[in-house]
């Protein structure tokens, strides 16, 4: 059995310092947890922002490539008045006076860029463009797109379709190695022209 003198020899510790040590340890743990949570939220916000930015960029490129967005710099202006014929894009939209227009829908190997239209009517359209074309030399996958500035472009041969009057022929006259050359495509076989 312990006597009073035995109890006096035992070092006395105050419960208060233990509580403050444990309080400060808990406080540090809570602060670290809050910092981790804040970093986690910032990473998720950054990821969400990057995904949203990517989606907007892809949508913008897709719309500009077909010349179907009137809100982007130099893109299509919707000036369809009365019986004006329209051009049909790869995205399945009718456009009028496109600044940029993909001709080869599968690989974008032929397209109109920076196009300025001098006329656009129900029977035909005439303009000037920087014609972009993959010359496929030595073969298409190894060839880069060539640009032919100040090329003459025409839409012609309008047809009545379920989408209204659409041009069925596109022709571009451009200079290759100093000689006048012609690129022409007919959309008559396109199932959209029904």
Topology of this protein?
Layout: H1 4-9, H2 15-66, E1 87-88, E2 94-95, E3 101-102, E4 110-120, E5 125-134, E6 145-161, E7 164-176, E8 179-186
Antiparallel strand pairs: 1-2, 3-4, 4-5, 5-6, 6-7, 7-8
Structure write-up:
This protein has 194 residues and is α+β, with helices and mostly antiparallel strands. It has a domain at 87-193. Helix content is 30%, strand content 34%. The protein has 2 helices and 8 strands. The chain has helices at 4-9, 15-66, and strands at residues 87-88, 94-95, 101-102, 110-120, 125-134, 145-161, 164-176, 179-186. The strands form 2 sheets. A 6-stranded antiparallel beta sheet has the order 3-4-5-6-7-8. A two-stranded antiparallel sheet has the order 1-2. It is elongated. The N and C termini lie far apart (108 Å). Mean pLDDT is 76; it is low at 62-81.
